[in-house]
Structures are given as structure tokens and as C-alpha cells.
Amino acid sequence: MTGLARSKTLPGDLATRPPGLASARAALTNGASVVDLVGEGWRRTNAAAQDGVFIAIAEETSVLAEARRIDERRAGGVFLPLDGLTFSVKDNVHVAGFPTTASCEAIRILPEESAYAVARLQAAGAVVVAKNTLDQFATGLNGTRSAEPLCRNAVDSDYIPGGSSSGSAVAVARGLTSFSIGTDTGGSGRVPAACNGIVGVKPTLGLVSGRGLLYNSRLFDTLSVFALDTADAYEILAVMAGHDPHDPYSREDADAVETHAVSAGRMILATPRADQLSFFGDSRAEAAFAADLAALRAAGYTLEEVDFTPFEAAGKLLFDSAFIAERLIEYGAVIEASPEMVHPAVRAAIEPGARYSAQQAFEAIYRLESLKRQVACVFREHDALVLPTTPTIFTIAEMLAEPTSRNAAMGRYTYFANPLDLCAASVPGTGRSDGLPSALSILARATGDAVVHGVARSFEAAVRSRLTETGPDCVRDRPLGIVR
């Protein structure tokens, strides 16, 4: 089979979108080959080559050669968990055979090795078919800080796709790849998932090695997973996770951190006080969040309001303190040498880092530690925190008109997670009345990934149940991830 020839052995649904884990395994059991599945995945990816989703796409011959090697291995009786799956990788993460640019050709690196986490996925049978577009230097939460053609929202192309992992989210939401890998510093793995109606998982810091990543912040960066549902996302995370002795920020206990969903039991969930929530005048987003909380209550969770102030304060430190100076380590020389190749909004975000003193850096560290102590009190009394992933969603035209303030608005409920060392997942919610997706963020303390997974799975099931009860009309404009 060539990448452009549709296999006769694939069921109809797999011939129109790459499979998730369960459907890939079923197809392979029923006689499809890895060449069939991977070839179809590459065909769909290549068909979208001009849509702003991908920066680079693998050669068909190399992708199919890898698929044949996997088929030969399987013929010898060796089966791996991700056999038959295609995935794409955000272009600030190294993949051998692809250049790494972070959406800036002035950087262009030709890595000899894939990032540690990517290599683990490849070793488990998944095949990389492309590198994804992103907000340049992974600095932005909207997806418009990249070269033309802009990556567009998978649900409504007039809207932003979210960022900075814009292409990674859209590739999954449009069914171009089985899953994808992004990064998350201030919400880059959760915001685009929310904007496109799919699952985005941001693990505990250090659970997944960052080796092979162009860093914004070695303190706060993590790789993230995009998938159609929580089951796939967390199984993929389990493959990526693990201690890397060559990454000084890898958790030594990473191999022991549980990611399988824990039973819901009688969990108590925190949510911000109603008077502290802002949806920037978006009544549809506000109504969707109310419906999401109702779904959690129906699933048996107890919800209690808590003070959002320390979370918001920690989020502001990410860009409004000396912590922003850390981005100059990776990108400062490029900005100085080739300013014309750096997006104006990205320069405006990073250049202020040069103005902070060492004293101010220590003051930011002290302030953050104080806020961590305050937040710890919340998690001593509550199993997880739930809140909207984004307060609203803007059109591309609106974002381009006010690129700074509206980008900051998108991070209101995500900026704080990594500075406070929380794990998180964004899960599609009950949907907005205008057909755009809504999403709920679930957060827990470090190493609480299994708790987040458990709540996410229960919420996902509750949303599915509500969609089944209300019928298909309410989801006709949404991606299929939550109802497939």
C-alpha cells in the first residue's frame, strides 16, 4: 500500500481518521496491517500539508518503511502497545530526521537523537509522521504567533486554535494523527486542547523527561499529551513517563508515580468562589462551566468553593516577574542577533526579562514558595481543583487586534499550575450553546496524576451520558473525541 491508496482491509471509520488505541488494536486483530494503519495516517497528514497544522511532514517512504519493520516484528510474535498509531510532535521538541525550529528559522537545529520521551513512544511502536506548528518559541496561548498560513481552530476556522501547541491540538481534533505531543509552561498543553474539543494532559513536573526540549523554563516546562479521550491520553503518558538519569529535573521517583485512574470514592473537589470567576463577558462560557459543575455533582462529587487569590497570584509571576528572564537563556541570543525573525508579540513578552535584577529573581522565588504553602492548605482538604480551562475563546481577528491582553486572558486559569507544581488535565465539557467547545480543567498536587485521571474519566463519562440524553444536535459542530 502507498500512503495515497486507501486499504481495503480498514473498516470505514479507520479509513477516515487514524485510530485510537482500542480501535488500532481491534483493526490489527481483525487483519489490518501496521502499513495499512500508518499509511492511512500519513495520507491524511499529507493532505493537510498546506493548512498551517504542520511545519514538516515525514517522507512517505520512510514512514512506510518503519511500518513494515513493525509488521515484521509482529510477524515474529513481538507486539508493542502503540503499534499502528501515528503521532506528531510540537516543533520545539527534537525528533531525529526533522529540523527543530520552534517556529523560527534562525534557530534551525538538526538533532541526531529524538527527545527522550519521543524515543520512548517510538520504541513502543508509534510512528512520527510530522512536526507541528506552534506559537513561536512556545510563547503564547493563542496560535497566531507563527508564520502564515495560520493554524486554525478545528471546530470553527474563524477562531483561534489556542497555543502554544496549536498544531498538536488541531492535528488530533481533525483526526490527522492518532495522538500528538506538545509542551506546557503556562497552559500550552491545556488551552489548545480546550479550544479544539479534545483531551490535554499536563503531568506532574519531572514525571516526563524534558531532555530534547527547547526550554522556556527548566523550572516549569513539561511535555504534554493530546488525545481524543482520557484513556488514550493516560496510556500514552504512561509510556512517556519515567526517570531519566540524564535529565537533572527528572523526578527520581518518576517510575513509581501512578497514572492509572483512582476510584472516585467520596472525593471533595475545590472550585473558585463564584465572585472570583471571570468569563470576560462570555455568557455562553459561563453557562457551560455551570453545566460542567452540575455534571460533576451528578457523578457524585462534592464541590466546595475556595479562595482563588493565591492561584491567581502564582499565575501572574510567570510573566510579570523575574521568572520571565529564564526564557532569555534559550532565545535571548536569537532575539538579539535576528530580531526581524522574531514575532513582535513574542519579543514583547520575552525582552522585559532583561530588566530584572538578581535580587528581584530571589524575591520572585520567595513569593512563589509562600504561595505554594497557601495552596497546599487547599489540597489538604480537597482531592482536586476544578475550574474552566479557558474563560472564553476569541476569533483570530479579535486576537490579532489585541494580542497581549487577550492572550493573557486565555491563561487566567492555567498560568499557575506549573509554578505551583500541580498536575492537570483539560477535558471537553458539555459544550456551549453556539457549538464551540467548552472544557473543564482538573488539577491536583504533584504526583496526583492518578487522581486527576480518575476525576477526568468520571467527568468524561458524565458528559457522554448527558450528550446521549440530549441527542446528537448539540454536538453536530464539535470534534468527535468526546462522543466517538
Structure overview:
- The chain has helices at residues 21-29, 34-47, 60-75, 116-123, 166-173, 191-196, 230-240, 283-298, 309-317, 327-337, 344-350, 358-381, 396-401, 405-410, 449-470, and strands at residues 54-57, 86-90, 127-132, 179-184, 199-202, 222-227, 268-272, 302-306, 384-388, 422-428, 439-445.
- The protein is of the alpha/beta class and 484 residues long.
- It has a single domain, classed as Alpha-Beta Complex (Amidase signature (AS) enzymes).
- Strands 1-3-2-4-6-5-10-11-9-7-8 form an 11-stranded mixed β-sheet, with helices on both faces.
- Helix 4 (116-123) links the parallel strand 2 (86-90) and strand 3.
- The chain is globular.
- The two termini are 27 Å apart.
- Residues 1-8 and 472-484 have low confidence and may be disordered.
- One of its GO terms (molecular function) is catalytic activity.
- This is Amidase domain-containing protein.
- Residues 59-450 form the Amidase domain.
- InterPro entries: Amidase, Amidase_dom, AS_sf.
Question: Strands, helices and their partners?
Answer:
Blueprint: H1 21-29, H2 34-47, E1 54-57, H3 60-75, E2 86-90, H4 116-123, E3 127-132, H5 166-173, E4 179-184, H6 191-196, E5 199-202, E6 222-227, H7 230-240, E7 268-272, H8 283-298, E8 302-306, H9 309-317, H10 327-337, H11 344-350, H12 358-381, E9 384-388, H13 396-401, H14 405-410, E10 422-428, E11 439-445, H15 449-470
Parallel strand pairs: 2-3, 2-4, 7-8, 7-9
Antiparallel strand pairs: 1-3, 4-6, 5-6, 5-10, 9-11, 10-11
Organism: Hansschlegelia plantiphila
Protein name: Amidase domain-containing protein
GO molecular function, one term: catalytic activity
